[in-house]
Specification:
By secondary structure, the protein is an alpha/beta fold. The chain contains 12 helices and 5 strands.
Amino acid sequence: MHFGKHLQIDMLHGPIIGPMILFALPLAMTGVLQQLFNTADVLVLGQFVSTEALAAVGNNSPIIGLLVNLFMGVSLGANVVIARFIGAHDLKETIRAVHTSFLLALIFGVLVAVIGELMARPMLEALSVPTSVMPLAETYLRIYFLGMPAIGLYNFESAIYRSRGNTWMPLQALAAASGLNVVLDLLAVLVFDWGVAGVAATTALSNYLSAWILYRGLCHEHGIIFPPTVAPVECILLNLDPGKEEVRAKAEEIYAMLCKAGVTVLLDDREERPGVKFKDADLIGAPMQLVLGGKGLSRGVLECKDRRTGEKGELPVDALETALPQWMEGVRKAWAERRA
């Protein structure tokens, strides 16, 4: 996914107040929008169905507010952990934290959904929901709980974006889902006459949309791509044959050369399949990618890729001190022209 310049917040250069506001504002708006999903349901049902339907859904608001805040709070932990590893340029732990976040989101979401289905009635009784609206309230809550895995995924995916300094993409995904929720609510009530059950189902569906939008961004064909000026790491170097001593030695030599030149770079020399390394590299978001393997080294070339355009090339290993800086400067210049 290509993030536009309006999505990027550079908090490393210049005054801090402006970037801090730009970072915090969409974060606050995201929290408000998550709470407004239930509010939209209440308004549509109250306006077009009945006061009983309005009361039934309105009585669920404390439970839904608690659940949303719970997921937001837990995801902040993932935000902190991922940001810390990115700041430390620890590739292995960054990837592990990202993968763990996805797994925890699914497990936590499913767990909450199962518990919610089992405890829906007792929770509503604890809130002293009137018996006259209890059936409708229970119907809404049980269907709403089916969207818990999506809410969990959305919040943990948002944490990954926030850890990279991007709070706008989660807001845009949620805004799109909120708009869809209102439209589907109206269709469910005015066209299909599905009442409370229909509104609850469309809300759950809209939550899945917001999670899907962020997932597509993270798992896009080109992965996450950050401009060189704000990327936590400007370049990632993949060693595809770490078991071969000559490849390992050359990869470490290139890594040292880049570090000496002041380039923020990560070296992936894990004993993993190339496919795994390429996929994990996409999650890091570095705008430039270098690939060194036994076959390439035997031909005397280092593969390079501008991840913004997808353009690939080859650099002569015996002339990297001049060829590599020239190529990297060309990538930086193209980014600068694009942002101008």
